[in-house]
Amino acid sequence: MSAARAPRPFVIAVDGPAASGKGTMARRLAAHYGLPYLDTGLLYRMVARAMLDAGHDIRDAEAAAQIVESFDEAAFPEERLRGREIGEAASVVAAVPAVRAGLLARQRRFASQPGGAVLDGRDIGTVICPDAPAKLFVTATPEVRAARRHKELIGRGEAVPFDGILADIRRRDARDSGRSDAPLKAADDAVTLDTSALTVEEALAAAIGIIETRRAA
Ligand code: DC
User: Fold this and answer.
1) CB-ligand 1 contact for 110 (6 Å cutoff)
2) Which of 123, 152, 157, 197 could form a disulfide with 127 if both were Cys (CB 3.0 to 4.6 A apart)?
């Protein structure tokens, strides 16, 4: 009798630009499929928070390379990681190759759990989990993303003008897509989902349709 081969873990990679709705989508997909979920942006935000807390210039690549080796995830509750300033700072440290290398193993470890996992970020389908059977690239126009982020920040009590948020988003897109190491881009085998004109429920239904097609393949 031959031993049954363990099923390959089912990894769902969700990438996309800032405020594209990929986080909401990934969280909902994880709940739908009963899989663990990792928001990889939080890891970059932790490194940025640790840099700022230690008084480093956020552009100090050497300090960032040291911090990534020693920071304690438990020291950063999510509410300290979600502000506008920290998203921008995370995008700066994320361009440092040593920071990306320092975060790689823990992301891959998360993705290799027996049943699979859902991860969202910028390079999940291209670098972290290039063999993931299901890859989504979630996007929306910069204006729609800025409007969503504006609403979210107002909800958190951060009164920021819309134009400032749109400028932030454009700058972050340029930095995340323009860096040389693991830039933001859709994997060749990812399906792009433009959520500009979709509600959360519509986007989720479209994503599940795409994943089911991949699962059947
Ligand atoms: O998804 P987010 O907005 O929380 O990510 C914050 C920054 O972290 C983002 O501007 C770029 C960086 N990031 C990255 O380079 N790679 C990832 N997998 C996730 C985030």
Assistant:
1) no
2) 123
